[in-house]
Amino acid sequence: MPTVGILRDPLFEALGRSYTEDEFQELCFEFGIELDDVEEEEDAGTKTRGAASGEKVVTYKIEVPANRYDILCLEGMKRALRVFLGLDSPPTYTLSPPEPQLRITVEPP
User: Where is the Phenylalanine--tRNA ligase beta subunit B1 domain (predicted)?
Assistant: First the structure.
């Protein structure tokens, strides 16, 4: 199973509450994923988060099933857990009619 690193604080902010490590591990178990490891390291900064702040950041290493590619990032994990907890309704998808079909003609050289 793939393991993804999700920052704890943005995840908890998106879920609307804080969890202890044991509570979050139980939530993961109920949802069908596994909290593999918890790492605490100094914030090195990134292009998306900006310059290093020098604070400690906690990263959850979460094992996800190979067929759940929708939860390989913070946004997908947030949406899936919020739907599981009943905080959001499941997304609805609609099938739109196909665009006009293209025709490709291959002629011999």
Answer: 1-86
